[in-house]
Write a structure and sequence with these properties.
Largest sheet: 7 strands, mixed
Radius of gyration: 21 Å
CATH topology of the largest domain: Aspartate Aminotransferase, domain 2
Low-confidence stretches: 1-15, 52-65
Structural class: alpha/beta
Strand content: 5-15%
CATH superfamily of the largest domain: Type I PLP-dependent aspartate aminotransferase-like (Major domain)
């Protein structure tokens, strides 16, 4: 038994879990053996650690056969990076023999300028799954839980359950926003209150006044995690000003959505330095600096393309609104969306409808357990949405 404990300790230290990090985890209710789960999560990543949320929430639907030519089943962008960013990334391939240097500083400064947030409050990451997982591990524990809306993006609760933290699920409001007062009541001593806005899968926005209320009333030592993956598609105000005010908030962004960089793995967090430094006790500094040069350069250039961002958003809205108009005409209910996806209530099992679309060569999104008759549809290109519209008519949905 003693030899087994020695082996665990050695693995944890070798993986980057220092004595201080281990002591912190133990003080928050983890058993020594459960530290191995943290080790797996933070070194191998969420998917490799066996978390279903990381895999099925980001991968395309598996219902469609290989012949599918219309891919509107995952919340990707229908096209690649913005042209100036793509050109800059292509040029940056030539620097692939070097580790990221000044490119990282350029990215941080670009984000700080756009978000009006101090550069010291911005940390870039290779995708958003890593920082989201680290935040949950840092602020949740067997003694401090996670509070989420139901339904919402599943990675945070998957991580929390994996590490043995309590997960409290709170229904959305009548207009599909996060019910922040009910969230606080559900667990007045939680470690993390997770607000995804626009929310995945409902494509609805939670007002900043509600987030401000949650910050003002939450327990000491907890944080509000605001996931703004789809904020550029929504043209909604961001919570980044709360970061600049020094609140107990972490704002998470990804380039996988409007910026068309899902395969390039780029993201960043905005928070007071002390809040994110706590996550660095778990090998986070290496993760934040081990970034691919083309992705960092592409992200930095993308951030400042205000006109192209607006144009891409307008292109999405135009295609989306044509589909919504068809659904209205056919009296098919949907949740009014604010981002590049929408939830459609077919009034029958969504898995069956998904299979029908698959036979037409169209890959649509999945359903959530709470709504088995509702499918998530990602807004694709104009041609892809025309194909979706034609299939709705042909299948007499």
């Amino acid at each position: 038994m003693n030899n087994e404990r020695t082996d665990i300790d050695g693995d944890l230290v070798e993986a980057g879990l220092s004595d201080d990090a281990q002591a912190d985890l133990l003080s928050r209710g983890y058993s020594r053996r459960s530290l191995g789960r943290v080790l797996a999560l933070l070194t191998a990543g969420p998917a490799a650690a066996g978390l279903a949320g990381a895999a099925f929430a980001q991968a395309p639907s598996q219902a469609a056969p290989p012949k599918a030519t219309v891919r509107i089943g995952a919340n990707e962008c229908w096209t690649g990076p913005l042209e100036p960013a793509a050109k800059a990334a292509a040029a940056a391939v030539a620097t692939g023999n070097r580790y990221t240097g000044s490119q990282r500083a350029d990215f941080v400064n670009a984000a700080a300028s756009v978000e009006k947030t101090p550069p010291s409050h911005i940390i870039p990451w290779a995708g958003s799954s890593d920082p989201l997982s680290r935040i949950v591990v840092t602020y949740c524990s067997p003694t401090r839980g996670l509070v989420i809306a139901n339904p919402t993006f599943e990675l945070a609760p998957s991580v929390a359950r994996y590490i043995g933290a309590k997960v409290s699920e709170v229904p959305l409001t009548a207009d599909y926003a996060h019910d922040v007062k009910a969230m606080l009541a559900a667990d007045p001593n939680a470690g993390v209150y997770y607000v995804c806005t626009p929310n995945n899968p409902t494509s609805t926005v939670t007002g900043l006044a509600d987030i401000e209320w949650l910050l003002a009333n939450k327990p000491a030592g907890s944080i509000v995690l605001v996931d703004e993956a789809y904020i550029h598609f929504a043209d909604a105000p961001t919570a980044s000003y709360l970061v600049a005010q020094g609140k107990d908030v972490i704002v998470l962004r990804t380039f996988s959505k409007l910026f068309g960089m899902a395969g390039m793995r780029m993201a960043f967090t905005m928070a007071r330095p002390d809040l994110m430094m706590k996550t660095m006790r778990y090998d986070g500094m290496m993760a934040s600096f081990a970034l691919p040069n083309p992705s960092v350069v592409c992200g930095a250039v993308s951030l400042v393309q205000a006109d192209l961002i607006a144009a891409r958003r307008a292109e999405m809205v135009k295609a989306r609104d044509r589909s919504l108009a068809l659904l209205d005409k056919r009296n098919i209910r949907y949740i009014p969306p604010r981002a590049n996806f929408f939830m459609v209530d077919w009034k029958k099992p969504a898995k069956d409808v998904q299979a029908q679309f698959a036979k037409e060569g169209i890959e649509i999104g999945r359903s959530w357990p709470i709504w088995p008759n509702v499918s998530r549809i990602t807004v694709g290109s104009a041609a892809e949405m025309d194909a979706f519209n034609a299939a709705v008519v042909k299948l007499n949905l």
